[in-house]
Amino acid sequence: MSILPQSLFSRRELLKKSAVGFGNLALLSMLNDEAQASKSKDPLAPKEPHFTPRAKRVIFLFMKGGPSHMDTFDYKPQLQKYDGKPLPFDKPRVQFAPTGNLLKSPWKFKQYGESGIHVSELFPNVAECVDDLCIINSLHGTNAAHGGALLKLHTGSDAFVRPSMGSWVTYGLGTENQNLPGFITICPTLAHGGVKNWSSAFLPAPYQGTPLGNAAVAAKQAQIEYIKNDFLTRKIQRKQVDFLNDLNRMHQEETGPNQILNDRIGSFELAFRMQEEVPEIQDISGETEATMKMYGLDEEQTADFGRQCLMARRFAERGVRFIQVSHSDQKVQWDQHGNLLEGHGKNAKEVDKPIAGLLKDLKQRGLLKDTLVIWGGEFGRTPTAQGKNGRDHNPEGFTMWLAGGGVKSGIKYGATDEFGYYAAKDKMHIHDFHATLLHLLGMDHEKLTYRYAGRDFRLTDVAGHVAHGILA
């Protein structure tokens, strides 16, 4: 015979029926306060920054695999001089793989612009924009593997699931267009962390990155999933969404506020509005022929990444807060452990013209002044050879560059050693990079926090210093 009572009370029913219902009264009061707060606050509404921002939005040009800084934007004449010689100091205790002697760059460097900054012949078009660049030659990280390094760059942690920097930015500032997500990632990689690199993790769902295709899909075919409905009219869809929202709100009246359910209601509403706006943004037929050529859409080798960069501009000018563009494929694009000359040569040709086109286009439209453009990968490469003609992963010192958005232009900040192995001057850790990014957007990285699991989390964890030397 069962010893359980014939009927079991839920916790809510117990509060109603015990102690003359006083527990239920207290619960209803708390739920009402929470409900009012949730109704009055749109999670994606524009928010005031902590102080006057230099930038309003971010375009992150992510070169997956780790471009070699000594072959692109970190000129090392000593590396050319001592080619084939042993590295005259110790290599890191922890290395991804063994490497041999020094390997010179197979590309020539030339000074460009009024700044006279050396740029590799790999990037002749970007070199024309060098006076708009703030080249940081002293980045360093903590992980020599792609998976950990990608997560470190994107989320600030290489060991735990944490919100991505795009999610933190959207959480801190909201978005300027309520018909679009605050964070778009164009053709992102599904490897080495995949969705975790644009995830909102424990932040509310509205701050999650919205993928437009993925790295295995050509940019021309890249779509946000279910952006079109070929079976129902918008009028019927509107009725469906309204009915679903009514059911969810009825459920909340009985059970109390639920953040996850609120987020789901919001996502249905946003998805409905996106069905009109996103296809219009992706329709580039109204762009001039000159603009198309500037991005390289008229050439087979540059058309794919050129379209991604053009999409980034179109999303940026419509108020999306954080846009990521990934140059990646199923071969870990910039990861040349061998065949450096062939691999980096091919990669640079695919992105050089589109990136220069984006910078010039933003500038002529007046968007560059308050748009922060970031270029870089998860780490750099070793100045020592892997095999005969490759370079291994190197998180000890590498290069990223910024443009627009309140940074000084036509400068080099920091430096690696004379061969390019270690960050040596004005070192900038990934946490420092994140702190500086948030500062440019008007946010104090120590104040942008979210309470979860009993503690306050932030993008920079318990570290990070703003690099004031690059601020305009």
UniProtKB/TrEMBL annotation:
<dbReference type="InterPro" id="IPR017850">
    <property type="entry name" value="Alkaline_phosphatase_core_sf"/>
</dbReference>
<dbReference type="Pfam" id="PF07394">
    <property type="entry name" value="DUF1501"/>
</dbReference>
<dbReference type="InterPro" id="IPR006311">
    <property type="entry name" value="TAT_signal"/>
</dbReference>
<protein>
    <recommendedName>
        <fullName>DUF1501 domain-containing protein</fullName>
    </recommendedName>
</protein>
<dbReference type="InterPro" id="IPR010869">
    <property type="entry name" value="DUF1501"/>
</dbReference>
